[in-house]
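Two quick folds needed for the group meeting slides. Do the first one here.
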Amino acid sequence: MTRILQNKTILLGVTGSIAAYKAAGLASQLTQAGAAVDVVLTREATQFVGPLTFESLTHRHVVADVMALLPDSQIGHVALAKRADLFVIAPATAHTIAKLAHGLADDAVSATALDTRAPLVIAPAMETGMWENAVTQDNVLRLVARGAVIVEPGVGRLASGASGRGRLADLDDIVDTVRAVLGRGGDLAKRKVVVTAGGTAEPIDPVRVIANHSSGKMGFALAEAARDRGARVALIAGVTSRRVPRGVEFVAAPSAVEMRDAVLRAVEGADALVMAAAVADFRPAHAAEQKIKKGKTETLTLELVRNPDILQEVSRHPSRATRHMVVVGFAAETQELLANARAKLESKDLDLIVANPVPSAFGSDVDQATLLARDGTVTELPALPKEELAEKILDWLAGRFA
């Protein structure tokens, strides 16, 4: 489960778009993440997906008529509007967006939107011409000015068979936006947190690199969790195939030198750096301009030079002194885990180090870690999903700020 969605009531409005079938997947995803999901449908939406589908997924009563009553005789759209922590409308048609912009309330979705005081997230879906029409864009701007958050439609094949902008955004992007909006005002609000993730790749020639097994899962989990707690997040990633989460500033830095440069820029004005990336200690002294051919030789000798020590350079950065920037490092070790982690904690001038054995450090969804703080506190954690470990690390960080 995602912590930010647990015990939250999410109101999902579904309107008459062919993309309405995707809303069933959204309802399921939010429910599995721990949210209670209430669904309101326009009459047109029921022509694509019926109430029973959503009731089966959420195990909650669905409102599909502005005049409908709940089983306890409360007015449906009024009761749902009052108990919602957030209202997401996905898909939102051009017609619905126009009604929301002008305060009309003639169906269950628009009436609920007018009544609720919960934050509003809107994910449009329509033909390209309708989306790009000046009237639609003006209506969107009106809603944004009133505080609505728009998850812009994607580009791709549309129901008409044409291709263009207008597809409903990916469900993961919609969920990311819901999480980020719910996280406003969290315990890391108004803090800037820089997170690094993934491994680096040091070129040998245009084809080959020196790399490691880091997947980036830990760093991405930290970035998403920090965003969910209200932080302004800069995510600097090395080599990874993971989807870039919405709501963070993303910088690609595939090599150690590029990551050093990106980190030193990003920590300007930062409150914390969480250095989860697995940065290569060495790189080839000279990368060949052309692919090295095997030829008849049986061996290949590479001259390696040390990469810059990013954490050592950060320790001398002005933000470390002027903003009392908190620095968290990671130690992935194959032997003498705690002794090596303690040595790194001291030599890099860290505030916290996360020590984990190599078998669980790379690629796995579960990690076993020990947190060692500068003040000597040692916290041994059980094996946890990386999302939960990220929350534990950020719990420590939030406590440090407090």
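Then this one, please, same format:
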Amino acid sequence: MIKRLLLASPRGYCAGVERAIDTVELALERFGPPVYVRKQIVHNLHVVRGLERRGAVFVETEDDVPEGAAVVFSAHGIAPAVRTNAERRGLRTIDATCPLVTKVHSEARHYASRGYAILLIGHAGHEEVEGTTGEAPDAIHLVQSVEDAHLVDPPARKPLAYLTQTTLSLDETDEIVAVLRSRFPAIEAPKREDICYATTNRQRAVKALLPVVDLLLVIGSVNSSNSRRLVEVAGAAGVDARLVEDAASLDESWFDGTETVGLTSGASAPERLVREVVRWFRKRGVDEVREVGGEPEDVAFRLPAELRRRPVAA
């Protein structure tokens, strides 16, 4: 019988996600629907559906946007070729790329312009990795795992640096970097950690929960990298964990023999989904619901420059 539900803190939206969602909402207010969004603005199905109801239209590529229309680039970033193509087609572009992703792009350009080979630690096919790779396609070599780190064969005569996707597992990334440093002692690291503060804080909050829970629930979509990493953190510690979209995804059979359940949410999951899950447990007689420590986050990012400008009077 479930006796308690412990909520990880911090959890949920990060500053980059809040900025991206605010960007689409303000674009809808300023320009009126439809406003097109290239890819999912953030990786959460509930967020996407909510914005669709307000008039956002999500498309796969900028070529799917009518010429001259407004298009928002998602929080995950884009390759320069995407921006060039959008400009060629006369699109009104609004860039909601998370500033911490933009930082990685800048590092890629910095190293590539100086003749470095770059080992990019990340997951193939993820939009963030595609965008970063597009900044320096001839210089970047993707490293997805510890095995890749043992096998990667960068050009011998070039200086070497590594960068990372912002939403990776801290522990696995440390293992990969350790292998790279052992193989390439002169490899350069980014001046500041690429894995973002929100990914770091949410993984640490989960680790604080794991010694006292029997099962961890992570609210997030299946394509959310940072949410999936939270599940992996629990699995690595031997704690069963499940990734769920919302309260409707819960199955009472999961909790047979379970006394303490942990609950967290990925950086793109709205807090209302957490409240719905809490209500699901309360309806089943769970009275002890409390948060488990974690430092408050006070990071905030300004809206994209395109929306900070005063609109031209009609």
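Slide caption for protein two: The chain has three domains: 4-13+197-292, 15-97+301-308, 100-183.
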